[in-house]
Amino acid sequence: MIKLVIFDMLGVVFPNMRGGSYLNINELYLKIKTPKISFDDFFSKYQKLIIGDINISQFWENVSDGDIKVIETEHLNNYKIYPNIQFILQKLKEYYNVISITNHPTSWIQYVINRNNLNGYFDKIYVSEDVKLKKPQEKLYNLALKEFGVKPIEAVIIDDQIKNLMCASELGMKTILFGSNGTEGFVPAKSITSFENLVDIVNDL
After folding, report:
1. Could you read off the pLDDT of 83-135 as tens digits, one per residue?
2. Is 92 helix (H, G, I), strand (E, B) or coil?
3. Radius of gyration (Cα) for the chain, nearest Å?
């Protein structure tokens, strides 16, 4: 019996940002008109940011002489939320604990949560920068399972990235692939392209 539903943020709650952090950060980099560092260095700094090795100020340090705040805000405003996700989350919360695990900078998650009126719809959001762990590390999944007192078989994760689902599956969690990405030989419990009937789908796992 499922007790815990885990949502990814990028590519699921915000489906237009699918493709993982590489494409997302490339889009951000392309908005910088006069970058002072290469994309490889920029992406390397981002990887340090999302596990808390550096903070957001250090991430942006020496990247550009332009208005970083404008660039950052413009990028975050492009996060388009799944239609009616609040209703879907509320329905799920009638039966399960609902959380999110996301590889993201903390300030970015706070911004998009506030901007899209998602406060209160998750029982907890595990942000990689805060916990200094990122998907698909087993330790991060185990942290969430332990804090909510559930066994792996009692949890389901919804993600658009196969690598994140594979790790969860190896722990014994149920998996739902969201989107039209290929399965790369991995067979999730369910593959979906919308959240229609999601409560029924989770009930049947």
Report:
1. 999 999 999 999 999 999 999 999 999 999 999 999 999 999 999 999 999 99
2. helix
3. 17
Q: What mean pLDDT comes out for the span 43-49?
A: 97
- Position 146 pLDDT exceeds 70: yes
Q: 184: how many CB neighbours lie within 10 A of its CB?
A: 9
> DSSP H helical segments within 38-161, as ranges?
39-49, 56-60, 68-76, 85-93, 106-115, 128-131, 138-147
Cβ proximity of 184 and 200 under 8 Å: no
136 close to 167: Cβ distance less than 8 angstroms:
yes
Three-point CA angle 7, 105, 167, nearest 5°: 45
Supply the pLDDT for residue 154.
98
Phi, psi torsion values for 27, nearest 5 degrees: -60, -40
Three-state DSSP class for residue 139: helix
Q: Is 124 left (phi over 0), alpha (psi -120 to 50) or beta?
A: beta
CA proximity to 179, closest of 28, 20, 5: 20
Length of the chain, in residues: 205
Backbone angles phi, psi at 92, to 5 degrees: -65, -40
Q: What global pTM score does this model have?
A: 0.94
Q: For residues 103 and 204, what is the distance between their CA atoms, to the nearest angstrom? A: 28
Which of 90, 96, 82, 128 lies closest to 109 in space, CA to CA?
128
Q: Is 8 helix (H, G, I), strand (E, B) or coil?
A: coil
Q: How far apart are CA 175 and CA 190, in angstroms?
A: 7
